[in-house]
Design brief:
Layout lengths: L2 H22 L3 H34 L1
Helix pairs in contact: 1-2
Length: 62
């Protein structure tokens, strides 16, 4: 795993927590923040996954 994958998963977790707290406290702004964090985390993890795939493919082609 690379740092983008780790940070992406961490951001997804923070987003889930914020979303749950927002729902529990009836705070739509916090719930939205959680949704956005989860989306950003997914994008960052996907970027990290692509970097890992590229690195693995480069190793295989040599």
């Amino acid at each position: 795993m690379n740092k983008d994958q780790v940070k992406g998963v961490g951001e997804q977790i923070k987003g889930k927590v914020n979303e749950a707290v927002g729902k529990a406290t009836d705070n739509p702004a916090r719930e939205l923040k959680g949704d956005l964090q989860q989306g950003a985390g997914k994008v960052q993890k996907a970027y990290g996954d692509a970097k890992e795939d590229a690195k693995d493919n480069a190793k295989r082609s040599h």
